[in-house]
Amino acid sequence: EPTVRTELMEQIPPIAIFLQESRPKFPTAFFEYLMPIVVRYLTDVNNQVRKAGQEALLILLEQDLVAQSDIENKVCPILLDLSAPDSDDEYKVEAVNIICKMASMLSRTTVEHMLLPRFCELCSDGKLFQVRKICAANFGDICNAVGQEATERLLIPKFFELCSDSVWGMRKACAECFMAVSYTTSPEVRRSKLSPLFISLISDTCRWVRQAAFQSLGPFISTFANPSSAGLYIREDGTLSIRPSAQDVNSNSCQPSNNIAVMSSSANSA
């Protein structure tokens, strides 16, 4: 029964955590029994079971409970099969979604060598706009996962494609993640390639794309600043933040109202 398999998947993460804490007593239980079930349920015929399996996998990766060898030899091959050009549409959409979500949890080498080539292919998927939209929405996370060299060599050309996609939702998604993409590139690429590209989005024929681009204008401009002098930095969740100087914080530590003024002043000068 699918409901039984779904319920089982929801119990996998807490069991895995228990086995990890009791590893001397159960050194191989997780890898021998639980991991094969998670991998198998990624291709289950029932949609709800697959979704539960995907959520369980992401929790296991987040908790660092899956061995690197299992990721490379068991998980990645399944996702590559599911996201292949001739794969079923529903499976492909799910696979690209989980590839994007897990990229930030894997090593840079694994993402670059195993998942990045397929991600680049999916950015150009002419059959399903849903696949391209997932790629566009998560583009900044993939850039961050692989670093500057791979971003400029492989991802920037794909980003140009998505920014000129015929579907306006794709262009809007690109505008929304523009700052994250820019943050991963060199100042020269930012100036010579991304700036003209951003101007095309801010002049887009679609009102929603233009609106998203204008909302990203300030964050995009901030990527040109020197973080050490401007006090701007990117948080782990990808949002832009302002770090006041240590001198400002210390001198106003007992004056909450002044702290607000300091932050406002920093924001205005930035």
UniProtKB/TrEMBL annotation:
SUPFAM superfamilies: ARM repeat
One Pfam family here: HEAT
GO cellular component, one term: cytoplasm
Gene3D superfamilies named among the record's database cross-references: Leucine-rich Repeat Variant
Transmembrane segments: none
GO MF assignments: protein phosphatase regulator activity
Coiled coil: none
Top-level taxon of origin: Eukaryota
UniProtKB keywords: Repeat
Positions annotated as HEAT repeat: 115-154
Protein name: PP4R1 phosphatase
